[in-house]
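Q: Please design a sequence for this.
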């Protein structure tokens, strides 16, 4: 039975209520395990792909943090960048916002927004829809943001300050994007004396994903997964540093030594 009927199942209505969003006009919806998939007719042929990648991503995130998502959420597959930008303008309260070509997805506690992969060739850069492992990591990265938002007092991260390096680093590391290429980038930066001197610097420049991911990788190696779970609730840098027992220079110094001495 299709889920675009006028009277959808009670479970679907409950899930939509919990995600806090109505079905956009002209869109279709499908209730899945733990989330509602919303899409337009043009992306119906790819439903199997989205179910598989979101399902795999949810499992990977829950396995990484050793606990499940706290509540259902919506997954919106946008048929165009114009649709994605329109949503981001509304959600972020910026009527003049225009996304850059590398921006293909976002995640907060109650929703994941994604540019349809069939549009990546014409409306995106730095991403190839044909590269399925990388595309899976992109979706898993955003699902980490969803999971993170569900455990943070500011579910959309709007009240989180000074923690871009942690929010993005957590998603990069937990999604598997801190790979050998990015590890090499960080190693070369540190070896050449060009590593950041402040935590703000870890989320700047072309290597920002590599740098941010490396800090979370070090925190995991140094303190274990339990600390990463506790860090999810932080809204300020001071809170995060307090959990590590280090000040900013000490943290960066120990991270730098780890990068230089790790195998």
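A: Design:
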């Amino acid at each position: 039975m299709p889920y675009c009927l006028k009277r959808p199942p009670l479970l679907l209505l409950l899930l939509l209520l919990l995600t806090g969003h109505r079905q956009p006009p002209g869109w279709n919806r499908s209730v899945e395990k733990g989330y509602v998939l919303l899409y337009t007719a043009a992306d119906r042929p790819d439903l199997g792909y989205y179910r598989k990648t979101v399902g795999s991503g949810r499992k990977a995130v829950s396995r990484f943090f050793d606990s499940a998502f706290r509540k259902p959420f919506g997954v919106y597959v946008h048929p165009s960048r114009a649709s994605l930008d329109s949503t981001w303008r509304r959600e972020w309260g910026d009527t003049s916002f225009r996304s850059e070509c590398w921006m293909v997805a976002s995640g907060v506690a109650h929703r994941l927004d994604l540019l349809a992969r069939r549009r990546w060739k014409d409306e995106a850069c730095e991403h190839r829809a044909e590269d399925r492992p990388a595309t899976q990591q992109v979706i898993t990265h955003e699902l980490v943001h969803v999971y993170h938002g569900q455990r943070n007092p500011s579910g959309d991260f709007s009240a989180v300050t000074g923690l871009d390096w942690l929010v993005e680093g957590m998603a990069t590391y937990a999604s598997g994007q801190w790979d050998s290429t990015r590890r090499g980038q960080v190693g070369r930066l540190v070896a050449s004396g060009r590593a950041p001197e402040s935590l703000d610097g870890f989320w700047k420049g072309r290597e920002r994903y590599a740098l941010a991911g490396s800090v979370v990788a070090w925190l995991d190696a140094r303190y274990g997964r339990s600390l990463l779970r506790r860090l999810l609730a932080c809204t300020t840098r001071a809170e995060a540093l307090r959990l590590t027992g280090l000040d900013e220079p000490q943290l960066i110094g120990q991270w730098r030594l780890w990068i230089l001495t790790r195998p």
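Q: Thanks. Anything notable?
A: The chain is about 50% helix and 10% strand. The two ends are 54 Å apart (CA to CA).
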